[in-house]
From TrEMBL:
Protein name (Swiss-Prot/TrEMBL): Ppx/GppA family phosphatase
InterPro entries: ATPase_NBD, GppA/Ppx_hydrolase, HD/PDEase_dom, Ppx_GppA_C, Ppx_GppA_N, PyroPPase_GppA_Ppx
Cited CDD domains: ASKHA_NBD_PPX_GppA, HDc
The organism's taxonomic lineage, starting at the top: Bacteria, Pseudomonadati, Acidobacteriota, Terriglobia, Terriglobales
Organism: Chloracidobacterium sp. N
Top-rank taxon: Bacteria
Keywords annotated in UniProt: Hydrolase
Span of domain Ppx/GppA phosphatase C-terminal: 349-496
Residue ranges of domain Ppx/GppA phosphatase N-terminal in the record: 33-332
SUPFAM superfamilies associated with the record: Actin-like ATPase domain, HD-domain/PDEase-like
Length: 550
């Protein structure tokens, strides 16, 4: 496959950091990302920009890019290139997709970009576009050993990929896109007529027939991932559509958002029925839909719904990473960066997401990992008391790894800063409620216990409030037992007898752990508060005897 194009700016020899810009010249919009690659961290997107140039406007009828659109695209590319240089990038990668692929005067566009800006634009074949999309999605998605179908709905084309996270088993690009279809079928009436919608649906069914057959013959799929602005917009719009039409108050903004959202066939059908009744002016106000996408969202929704129906899809998970991220990953691999080449399990993706955030904020690795180990030991030995399961144990571990990252902002109130950083981190693999639980646990690793006035805590579901409350004493005890951040308590034994909890900290080679013991004793009243009637104590004599035998 052809490599992603690049305008080289001489990578620094031996540099521990690469900043790479990728520009995607699409049929609807031109997108820029600036990504930062550091050893030991997941690729971090530090800048995103978009300009809705609509290069494909009129292309279906004339097959030519208009002078006006070329001029607007060149201006956008110049602005994006200036922004990339301001971030001191080591390379600028520019790719173009459907609109430029199909334009008969594409050489005019390519020459102007090279002459006026000094950029060489690579026109990606549809199959290569699909491959790069798959590369990005596999980097942040757990396929759980299943065959996944990736769908990317663009302005001029839609890409389909079958993969389990490794080399794709099937790649296809179909000339069905939201801009193309809107211009061909839905540009005459606002809102569109039933006849227009039926004609569009029939056309899409015909255009999908071969792809549907090939996907079935290739073995089908068990799960579906959707990328691109159209799919993300549809998934974002579906919660608030009812309140918009009924003029009910908008729901309270949720503080925690996940990297991926979900969209079911039933939700998409209901959303599309509403979109098709709305005039363009009303669609512009729809939460989750960019006002510049309001004119093509109906065609995009019908296209996606038809794909769902023809392929028997009932549920789709979105992914924010797509072509642009794939271009960067492909380039970095060519440069020898050891990004993952093998499929990641859910645990791998989640752990790497957490560690990427931890390293970004310069966490103290020794203390964080030791606290996590002690917390897991305490959790396992107090199972009859808290009654939580393996998922809760995982949240506890991740909170322990991140509990001190607030020091990156300030020492004072670092526990509150930790919550803020976790809440706003990009964490692939986690649902919003999980991010909220981990952030709250980090928030309460010191200071007061949760109160009614603490809004981020009260937003949790009652069951999740209870989970956080039961995990707080465990995290605090583990943190206290490594007070000097030196790993002086190598393990902790916890025994329960009726309402008594005996805690036996085992030092490393008879090391003095008096400070750790004192700090642990300050935490014991919290155990009694969370678990009423419990009597917890530190057994120093037993700790000394146990250490002598080990």
């Amino acid at each position: 496959m052809p490599a992603a194009p690049r305008q080289s700016i001489s990578p620094r020899p031996g540099s521990a950091l690469h900043r790479v810009a990728a520009i995607d010249v699409g049929s609807n919009s031109i997108h820029l990302i600036i990504a930062e690659a550091r050893p030991g961290e997941r690729l971090r997107i530090i800048e995103r920009e978009k300009d809705t140039v609509r290069l494909a406007a009129g292309l279906t009828e004339t097959h030519h890019l208009t002078d006006e659109k070329i001029k607007a695209a060149v201006a956008t590319l110049r602005r994006f290139t200036d922004l990339a240089h301001a971030h001191d990038v080591t390379a600028v990668l520019v790719v173009a997709t459907s609109a430029i692929r199909e334009a008969w005067n594409r050489e005019v566009f390519l020459q102007r970009v090279e002459q006026e800006i000094g950029l060489k634009v690579e026109i990606l074949p549809g199959v290569e576009e699909a491959r790069l999309i798959a590369l990005a999605v596999a980097e942040v998605t757990d396929f759980q050993g299943e065959r996944g179908l990736i769908i990317d709905v663009g302005g001029g084309s839609t890409e389909f990929i079958l993969t389990d996270g490794q080399t794709p088993a099937y790649l296809a690009s179909v000339k069905l896109g939201a801009v193309r279809l809107q211009e061909q079928f839905l540009s005459r009436q606002d809102p569109p007529s039933r006849a227009e919608i039926e004609a569009l649906t029939t056309y899409i069914q015909s255009g999908l027939a071969r792809t549907v057959r090939e996907i079935q013959e290739a073995g089908g799929f068990q799960r579906v991932v959707g990328t691109s602005g159209t799919i993300l917009a549809l998934a974002a719009a579906k919660p608030d559509t009812r309140s918009l039409e009924t003029k009910a108050p908008a729901p309270k903004k949720v503080a925690f958002t996940s990297f991926a959202s979900e969209l079911t066939y039933a939700e998409l059908q209901a959303l599309n029925r509403r979109l098709q009744r709305m005039p363009h002016k009303a669609r512009r106000k729809l939460p989750g839909v960019d006002s510049r996408r309001a004119d093509i969202i109906v065609a995009g929704g019908i296209l996606l719904e038809t794909i769902f129906r023809e392929l028997g899809i009932q549920h789709l998970t979105t992914c924010e990473w797509s072509l642009r991220e794939g271009v960067v990953i492909n380039y970095l691999r060519e440069q020898g960066w050891s990004l993952s080449h093998t499929p990641l399990s859910a645990g791998d993706i989640r752990e790497r997401s957490i560690l990427s955030v931890a390293r970004r904020y310069a966490y103290e690795a020794g203390h964080a990992h030791h606290t996590a180990r002690l917390a897991e030991q305490i959790f396992d030995q107090t199972l009859p008391l808290h009654g939580l399961g393996m998922r809760e144990r995982e949240w506890l571990r991740y909170a322990a790894l991140l509990h001190d990252i607030g020091y990156h902002i300030a020492h004072t109130s670092h526990h509150k800063h930790a919550m803020y950083l976790i809440r706003h981190a990009e964490l692939p693999g986690f649902h919003p409620h999980e991010i909220a639980i981990i952030a709250n646990l980090a928030r309460y690793h010191r200071g007061s216990l949760p109160k009614r006035k603490h809004e981020d805590f009260t937003r949790l579901l009652p069951v999740h409030q209870e989970t956080v409350t039961r995990l707080i004493p465990i995290l605090r005890l583990a943190d206290a037992l490594d007070r000097r951040h030196g790993g002086k308590v190598k393990e902790v034994i916890v025994e329960m007898q009726d309402q008594s909890l005996q805690i036996v900290p085992i030092p490393v080679d008879n090391t003095d752990i008096s400070l750790e013991v004192w700090c642990a004793q300050q935490v014991l009243p919290i155990w009694a508060t969370v678990f009423p009637g419990l009597k917890a104590q530190i057994c120093l004599e037993r700790a000394a005897r146990t250490a002598a035998y080990r």
